[in-house]
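User: What would this chain look like folded?
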Amino acid sequence: MSPLHTLNLLLATGGLILLGVTIALFVDYFLNDSKIFQRYLRPYAWYLMIATTTGSLVLSLVYSEYFGFVPCSLCWLQRIALYPQALLSVIAYRLKDQVMFPLYGLALSIFGLGVAVYHYIYQSLPSEMLAAGVLPCLTDGSSDCAAKVFEMYGFVTFPFLSAVTFAFLIIIYINLLRSNRS
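Assistant: Here's the prediction, encoded as structure tokens.
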């Protein structure tokens, strides 16, 4: 098994685990008033944000710079939403900014989630629909937005992982905002 295939498998599996955690945190937020988050994750929320954003930044650069995959325009928009969060989360942690940063991070993550969902839908469409121009891609000709760098388990692609990452960050941010109000 090649190192790239192993990395793809690890990312896909980790993404599915993160999806399960994210769903559990959404259920906890809306049905349980964030009791599980407050008890088990609140002390580690900043570390989770920093690790998630920095890890995603590093992995996206590994795929583009080391493995040579050229990101498409939609991938760049997702990177634009993610990369500042890696730096800003460290700065906000150091400055103990628990009020304003979750708002900025939430705005960036909602934008990133929207682009990731659009990208995932775009990649899932049959090629005949793409040729008909049903959903436009912002492509500049350097890379095709419909091309899948990898696909594991029949549905896990980079836009899927990106959407899960942004959804996870959103639930962390809204939990932090709730705990700051109380």
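The chain has one domain: 3-181. If you want, I can go into more detail on any region.
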